[in-house]
Every structure is written in structure tokens, then in C-alpha cells.
């Protein structure tokens, strides 16, 4: 699993082999069982994760208890809360493992020390987050401008694995529709 992380270090830094191995040696990699809650909505968030294997769902509950799925994180995707400026409010969402997951676990309080010892690591992290935010902005703009069927077709093109990995009601929530609407769209596409 650390080979995957080394790929990012090679691509996004100019670190030598010994520095990369030192960084990889400091990282914490954990295995989480399916159903593990990494973060509850309302809890303060002091961790970030990088998915080596598995699928993590990000969702929130409204005041009436309805779930709204906002993201699925799969292999080679980072999960980080950008709302750390007001920690007493807690997280706006929950994070749950939909499969057994292998994750790199980062602690925000350890970041300054690690970045101080490995200056290029901060630059690499920033570049990864910039790529992630750019992708999220493009996906959000496309989501807003598309019909439910177009959203489903786009998901099939960009992230076809979600169809098999995610329960239909969660996938429907992520696509902004009811499970019944998603069933009708799937049937219409299969019949065409």
C-alpha cells in the first residue's frame, strides 16, 4: 500500500528515495471494518484520511432525520474537512466506511511538525487539495446544470464502480433524486 503513496511523492515532489522512505515510515495506515463511522456529524474533526482501498460515504442528516449524501471517496482520494476554522461547531457531515477500508490517517495537530521536517510534503498536500477542489468545482457545476438522467449518465462515465459498490438509495441521494426515480432512469437506459 505504501507504494501507492510513494507514487504521489514521486509525482508531486522532488524528494529523494531516503526522504520519501522517511515520510512513508511516519504515516499511519489503518484497516477499518465495513460500517465503521470515522466521523459523526457534529463532532469536531481533527483527522484527515487518504483512501488506499475501500469506499467512504460522506453524508449529513437534516433536522427531520433525512440523509443527504454529498460524496463517496474511493481509492486514491483524500478526505479532509476544510471547516477547521470553527471547531466548536463540529463537522457538517458524517463519514462511514461502506466497505472494509485501508486508509492513511493524518492528524491535523501533527501537520506543522511534519511539514516543518519535510517542507515538500506541505507543497504536495496543497497540490493534491488543489486538484481535489478543482475536480469538486467541476462536478458541482455539472451537477447544477444537468438533469437527473444526465447526472446518472455522467456518474456512469466518470465513476462507474459506484453503481456496484454503493446501495441504490445512497446513490440516489448522491445524485439528487429518489430511489424510485433512479430505478426508472436505470430501466429507461437499459431499454434504450
Automatic annotation (TrEMBL):
CDD domains: CAP_ED. Residues 11-86 form the Cyclic nucleotide-binding domain. SUPFAM superfamilies: cAMP-binding domain-like (SSF51206). The keyword NAD does not apply. Pfam families: cNMP_binding. Keywords: Activator. This is Crp/Fnr family transcriptional regulator.
Amino acid at each position: 500500500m505504501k507504494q501507492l503513496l510513494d507514487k504521489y511523492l514521486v509525482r508531486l515532489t522532488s524528494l529523494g528515495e531516503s526522504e520519501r522512505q522517511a515520510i512513508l515510515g511516519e504515516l499511519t495506515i489503518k484497516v477499518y471494518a465495513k460500517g465503521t463511522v470515522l466521523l459523526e456529524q457534529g463532532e469536531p474533526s481533527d483527522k484527515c484520511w487518504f483512501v488506499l482501498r475501500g469506499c467512504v460515504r460522506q453524508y449529513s442528516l437534516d433536522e427531520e432525520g433525512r440523509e443527504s449524501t454529498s460524496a463517496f471517496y474511493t481509492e486514491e482520494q483524500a478526505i479532509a474537512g476544510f471547516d477547521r476554522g470553527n471547531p466548536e461547531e463540529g463537522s457538517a457531515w458524517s463519514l462511514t466506511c461502506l466497505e472494509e477500508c485501508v486508509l492513511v490517517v493524518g492528524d491535523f495537530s501533527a501537520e506543522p511538525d511534519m511539514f516543518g521536517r519535510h517542507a515538500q510534503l506541505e507543497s504536495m498536500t496543497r497540490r493534491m487539495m488543489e486538484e481535489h477542489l478543482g475536480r469538486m468545482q467541476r462536478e458541482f457545476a455539472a451537477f447544477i446544470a444537468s438533469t437527473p438522467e444526465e447526472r446518472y449518465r455522467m456518474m456512469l462515465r466518470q465513476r462507474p464502480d459506484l453503481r456496484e459498490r454503493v446501495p441504490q438509495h445512497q446513490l440516489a441521494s448522491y445524485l439528487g433524486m429518489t430511489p424510485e426515480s433512479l430505478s426508472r432512469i436505470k430501466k429507461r437506459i437499459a431499454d434504450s
